[in-house]
Amino acid sequence: MTSVVEYDKLIRDKKAELGRLERDYKQQGNVISGKERTLKKLRENLSDLDGDISRETDELTKRKLEEEHKAITKSMESDIKAIETLKSERARLENEVNVAKADLSLLDSERQVQVGVERAEKYEAEVAAEFEIINNALSELSTKVNAIDKKEYPEAAKAGRILLTSLTEARNEYKAALDAREDAKNAGDNFVKACNAAIKLASPKLEKALGWKDTFKNILKAFANAVIAIARKYDYYEYKQSESLKAVGIFKNNLSLKEPESKDLQDRKEHTPK
User: Fold this and answer.
1) What is the pLDDT of residue 52?
2) On the CB side of 80, how many CA atoms lie within 13 Å of its CA?
3) Fewest C-beta atoms under 10 Å: which of 69, 225, 251, 256?
């Protein structure tokens, strides 16, 4: 997969190539215009000579005029061939300019797609970091639940296991919603509601037997902070998506765009100076 940085270099190189081609194309046009002006002048001179030759009575002078006529005719033929060659070359340059413009447009489009891919990957990495807070809180809760004396506090131990299962299921549903690119705020709200309900159900037995009131507060605080952070990141990246890649829809469909590079793109990279 070509990175945005690599695309930037390809685009810079293509712009430089396009600039050179356009300069050459313009220069060829100027040369052709100059040649055509010269040819026009020669035709005018030739027309004047035709008149002079037809009117001239002195044979020596007439022969000199005819020799001059031949020289001008030869020069004209040479200029006509040169103009034809230049026009052919200019047509080739025009085609190269058009190809370079098309390549540049394609590179710009491909870069925009890659911007979306990298943005989505960055979003996933940042969400994973925030999600680790939730995982750590569940891991700590699991340790505490497993440490409950089942003989001394059988009801609390059972409530703890049920709570841990409920919170883990809520976490899994939340993650599945995020992976599916569902609205992060709604998914987070549903997760927090499910956690609150599970804790409310388990808290009477666990708080009474083990005094876990602060434990529940800390868990809910950790969950809430992670949910808020994830929702903010979702809003930020979704805004960037709609701002620059609305037509492509890359943010919600980034996985489908992680395809092998085309041979054309690979060739461009291979022939681009490092």
Assistant:
1) 86
2) 9
3) 256
What is the residue-wise DSSP string for 145-197? HHTS-TTT-HHHHHHHHHHHHHHHHHHHHHHHHHHTT--HHHHHHHHHHHHHH
Q: What is the pLDDT of residues 96-126, one digit of tens each?
A: 999 999 999 999 999 988 888 888 888 889 8
Kindly report the CATH number that applies to the domain delimited by 118-260.
1.20.1440
Q: Based on C-alpha coordinates, what's the Rg of the chain?
A: 39
**C-alpha–C-alpha distance, residues 190 and 144, integer Å:** 25
CB 116 within 8 A of CB 240: no
Asked if 181 and 251 touch (Cβ cutoff 8 Å), the reply is yes
Do 4-114+264-270 and 118-260 show the same overall fold? no
Q: How far apart are CA 32 and CA 34, in angstroms?
A: 5
Contact 204, 160 (CB under 8 A): no
Q: Which CATH architecture has domain 4-114+264-270?
A: Orthogonal Bundle (1.10)
Residue 216's pLDDT is what?
92
The residue assigned the tokens 């005029």 is 65
Let me know how long the chain is: 274
Q: Name residues whose C-beta falls within 8 Å of residue 128's C-beta, 6 or more positions apart in sequence.
A: none
